[in-house]
Every structure is written in C-alpha cells, then in structure tokens.
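Input (structure):
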C-alpha cells in the first residue's frame, strides 16, 4: 500500500483516498491507471502531483474531483464519501465544493469575462454578485477586462479568467490539471501566483497536476507518481 500523509491545521476540506485503484477496458485488454493508492491531503494545503506522462496523475485528480469513480477503494472529501455518491449527487458536489482549472481554459466564447466568471456562481446555486466577481478579477490583475470576450484576451489572461471562475464561488477544494502547460514562462508565473494567492486567502485546499518542476516546488508538498502508484512525497522548504 502506498500511503502518504500531508498534515495541516488550516480550516478547509481534507482529501482522503484509501486503497484506490482504477482500471480501464481497452482493445488490448484492461489497463490499470491507479494501483492501491492511499493518500491524505490536509485542509488548506497546496499539493503538486508530478510524474511522467501516462503515470495516472490526471486520473487521480479526476477521481478526487468526482469526475470518475474508482474501480475499488474509497474517496472522501471532508465528510462526504465521493466514491459512494450517485452521479446526480457527485454533480451537485462538483458545482458546490470544487473549482476546476484545466490546461484548456474552456471559457464560453459567446460570454464576456464577467459572464464566464459569474456562470460558476449560478451553477453552484449562489447569487452572481458584482462586487465579489470584481474583487476576484482585481486580485488576478484583470479587473478591467470584465466586458471583453475570451478572443480579445491573451492566453495567460484567459487562464487567469479560468482561475477566477474556478474560485469565485468559494470552493473547499481547487483542482488544477496542467494549468500552465500551454503558457510561456511569464504567463505561467502569473497564473501560479494567482492560484497560490487565492488559495492562501480563502484557505482552499489546492491540488495541482504539473510536469513543470518549478511550478511543483512552489506548493507545500510534492507527490511523485509512476505507473499508477505513489512512489514518494516531499515537503517543500519555504
């Protein structure tokens, strides 16, 4: 069993996986993407998951966020056992308790920045408040772009809008899958700073999948993966 413990006293939602494995059927037979992963991430921490392509990083992130259900094992976020929920309940929890940032920003091209960010609050069943949305955009240094459309922004600006959208509703957990993978160094730095600043301000538990070691080393903890297993963990010195 591969067990990793990341402790924290910061308020927020802890993440606990116990004996999680994931298999996929393929034309060549079943492929095991995760193998007996046991992992605890403390509330309010920032964690990077690193490893070679195909090692199971994105699968692990998707299982934490309830996008997939493991073949075996239990996934718990706070007091909720995500792996035992119905599809409907998991969908409701994703909208309410999670914020997702992916390599592709997935902004709606026909909505303005304000509308893209506000949509997340509405999906979470919360009011879309102008002041809250503006404060979020201001914190990300894109406060003057609210009335622009995504195609009027640079790649880095679009990704910061995606961060605002992911965190505007105050999720307990933020999950980012290669959020800087398509950005240049300067834009990448701004996106990572934005994620970390908002994570610290809101006490959100942050988990980032990345191939970029410079990004990983800005988190509290780095988890190494290989062939579907956790092979090591290290605390990052501040």
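Output (sequence):
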């Amino acid at each position: 069993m591969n067990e990793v413990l990341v402790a924290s006293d910061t308020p927020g939602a802890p993440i606990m996986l116990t004996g999680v494995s994931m298999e996929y059927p393929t034309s060549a037979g079943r492929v095991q993407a995760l193998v007996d992963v046991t992992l605890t991430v403390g509330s309010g921490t920032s964690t990077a998951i690193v490893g070679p392509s195909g090692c199971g990083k994105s699968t692990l992130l998707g299982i934490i966020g309830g996008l997939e259900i493991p073949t075996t094992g239990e996934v718990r976020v706070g007091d909720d056992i995500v792996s035992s929920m119905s599809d409907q309940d998991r969908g409701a929890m994703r909208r309410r308790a999670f914020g997702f940032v992916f390599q592709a920003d997935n902004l709606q091209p026909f909505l303005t920045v304000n509308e893209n960010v506000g949509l997340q609050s509405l999906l979470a069943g919360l009011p879309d408040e102008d002041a809250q949305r503006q404060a979020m955009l201001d914190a990300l240094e894109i406060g003057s772009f609210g009335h622009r459309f995504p195609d009027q922004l640079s790649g880095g600006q679009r990704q910061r809008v995606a961060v605002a959208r992911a965190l505007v509703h105050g999720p307990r957990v933020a999950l980012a899958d290669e959020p800087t993978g398509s950005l240049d160094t300067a834009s990448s730095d701004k996106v990572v700073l934005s994620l970390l600043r908002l994570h610290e301000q809101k006490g959100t538990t942050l988990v980032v999948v990345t191939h970029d070691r410079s990004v990983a080393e800005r988190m509290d903890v780095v988890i190494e993966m290989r062939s579907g297993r956790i092979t090591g963990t290290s605390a990052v010195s501040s």
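Notes: Residues 185-202 form the longest helix (18 residues). The helical segments are 57-64, 87-97, 113-123, 130-139, 155-167, 185-202, 213-216.
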